[in-house]
Specification:
Blueprint: H1 3-17, H2 21-34, H3 39-51, H4 55-71, H5 75-88, H6 94-109, H7 162-167, H8 187-196, E1 198-202, E2 207-209, E3 218-223, E4 226-232, E5 235-242, E6 247-248, H9 250-254, E7 262-265, E8 269-274, H10 276-285, H11 287-308, H12 317-326, E9 328-332, E10 337-339, E11 347-362, E12 365-372, E13 377-378, H13 380-385, E14 392-405, H14 406-415, H15 417-429, H16 435-443
Antiparallel strand pairs: 1-8, 2-7, 3-6, 3-8, 4-5, 4-7, 9-14, 10-14, 11-12, 11-13, 11-14
Helix pairs in contact: 1-2, 2-3, 3-4, 4-5, 4-6, 5-6, 6-8, 8-10, 10-11, 11-12
Length: 447
Amino acid sequence: MTNEKQKIGQKITDAVRKGKWAKALEGYEQLIKLSPRELTLSIRKAECLEKLGRTDDALNELRRVSQEYMKRGFTVQAISIAKRVLTLDPGDTVANQTIVELQQEKVARAPMRGITPTPDKLPESTARRVITTEPSSSARSDAAPPQQGSSASPNVDIELDVEGLLEGGVDIDRPPERTPFFDDLRPDEMATVLKLCAPRRVSAGQWICRENDVGDSICVIAHGQVEISCTGSEGPVTIGQLGPGEFFGEFGFFIDRKRHASVRALIETELLELSRDDIQKLIDEHARVGDVLQLFFIERVVDMLLARSRFFGLFTPTERGLIKSKLVREKVKDGDFMIREGERGDTMYLIQSGHVVVTTKKGDFQVELARLNPGEFFGEIGALTGQLRTASCRAKGDVEILALGKADLHPLLQRNRSAADVLRRIADEHGKGKADTLFEIDRWGMV
């Protein structure tokens, strides 16, 4: 941010602290002249107008911003502002109707994309940005998580982080990222969403939810940026960052009404929140929404499995993203074999769902050695060396597995020596740490 903007931002900060809303309004108007395309500044201008009792002016500014977002394809942001309008004027019919009409025009111009089948090979995520550095220590990471079902009003006191405003804003001159929740909705579906979603604002550093909290709502980010983390085998693991148009919370909806990861706002963030009951109403009326959520849920499951894995969790978020792009999903029916003892193999497998029984042949009988659960992996020695399998693995019930071949595994291990060392130790624990295997690992320069 330029020095001039910083000076104006400081003036706004001082004015807000002293409750001088006219001065704050003047500051935001100056920033808007310097950054006319940054609509988050116009939103703050509207908040100042509201503080000054100029509600009609505030409403007009918010309606203008909502229409501008919608015209440029930023559906989530348009809905977020429309909900603000309704907070100020519950009887308003203009903002929502405008969004529905613009959505109808958009659908007419570009037919909706159908829901595609789950791909065998997982695509690389183009929307998620992975973390390359630790979050700022100044973030208020000790803030208490919200109570389930609570939703902060969008009309809270204006935050003072002007730089964060610009950082977490939306570049309206750039083509918007697709948001599966909203971008392909028909006008009638859009009208349903507008009624159901609730706006929520969280401060920089505030925990939106913590792992294992009760919770089943889904949140879509309108403005801002959040960090996703979970507990791995060696402690907390950062999964990645999400920004405008992306969403989280689908685990609690699909599985068990609890949070499977912690989410913290890196900068001030505005969300649209849909409760489980509201989402179910939406899916009951519009089944396509459920199909979209299911696809994203599957991808997030893979993210979580990799992050929590004793082996894959040792890789950085960027490396895990590369690993995910190499994985091939396979579905195995109850009783079918994935690995047979004595056969040659060059692939390792990560269990996504279901259970796998490991057996070895003793005379005419198959002796059970272990039962593996979701998140565990097997076949690593074959992937390392290509040698004959020393045990058989079959599905106990229907199973979904993620396969990673030798050609994709070796370059990853050469880049991450600690991960290679852990894989060797796991092989020892599995009773497969034979001298020729360890020699093969050493030969590849992995330890």
